[in-house]
User: What shape does this take?
Amino acid sequence: MPPYTIVYFPVQGRCEMMRMLLADQGQTWQEEVINLETWSQSPLKSSCLFGQLPKFQDGDLTLYQSNAILRHLGRTLGIYGKDQREASLLDMVNDGVEDLRMKYITLIYTNYDAGKDSYVKALPGHLKPFETLLSQNQGGKSFIVGDQISFADYNLLDLLLTHQVLAPSCLDAFPLLKAYVARLVARPKIKAFLASPDHVNRPINANGKK
Assistant: This one.
């Protein structure tokens, strides 16, 4: 039986980056898919530490909070930078990804119809820091930090792919980010994951907005 289990809704949401990470790192995992309609009244909800999913099992270790899970996988699989300096930079990047993800989630679930145009208009200002970070690392021809892939790369890649669905031309003004996405999605295991029926058939968000 695989050592990892992801307990989550049948959406990409806050788990697709960890699924992508596990796939690219050659890991296997189980999925326990939770029905959205019955979740609020289910015993599982009251048993979850913060009353929310994802829930992640690594053997006898149970974790909640998607970014804590990502960092755990980063440490466990050796993709948390080569030293403390890189690890600190990766924490910074991942927090920046979370900031933009929260803006995206707020748009999707609270203000999509009225707010999409202004969100897309403001998006370049939110993407520019990541272009800057890439430019400072080997001229943008490598990963977001250092010379090996990290947990933060998977999180950033997932966020950028999601935004390319929302606003297909959003990376046109950011050549390094655009090339970064192309480079990562060409990695054989990521390419296979993104083409898999499991990924393709999972909606990005629970309310169908994208």
